[in-house]
Amino acid sequence: FEDSRDIAAESDKGTTFHDFEKPGYEGQTIDYVFVRGDVPVSRFAVIRERVDGALPSDHYPVYADLEL
């Protein structure tokens, strides 16, 4: 398995866990989208948008655009 963040043509290298302490780019990276085999990944993103002004979780969601 490979981390889609590392092989994506366009990738966000930001962290994914912030524990509501320091939202932004500080924290740990503990959320992944793994791929296996010859799966092209065009984009990997960490979604930092707030919902109604609040963070929906102590983790940022991650997104990978795969070509299957």
Please sum up the structure shown.
With 68 residues, this protein is mostly beta strands. The chain has one helix spanning 4-7; strands spanning 2-3, 10-11, 34-35, 41-46, 62-66. Helices cover 6% and strands 25% of the residues.
Give, in order, the helices and strands.
EHEEEE
Distance between the termini: 15 Å
Please bin the fraction of helical residues: under 10%
Provide the residue-averaged pLDDT: 91
Strand content: 25-35%
Indicate the structural class: mainly beta
Q: Spans with pLDDT under 50 lasting ≥5 residues?
A: none
Extended strand count: 5
Q: Spatial order of the strands in the main sheet?
A: 2-4-5
Structural account:
The protein has 68 residues and is mostly beta strands. It has one helix at residues 4-7; strands at residues 2-3, 10-11, 34-35, 41-46, 62-66. Strands 2-4-5 form a three-stranded mixed β-sheet. Strands 1-3 form a two-stranded antiparallel sheet. The model has no long low-confidence stretch (mean pLDDT 91).
Question: Secondary-structure map with pairings?
Answer:
Blueprint: E1 2-3, H1 4-7, E2 10-11, E3 34-35, E4 41-46, E5 62-66
Parallel strand pairs: 2-4
Antiparallel strand pairs: 1-3, 4-5
List keywords for this structure.
68 residues; mainly beta; 3-stranded mixed beta sheet; two-stranded antiparallel ribbon; 1 helix; elongated
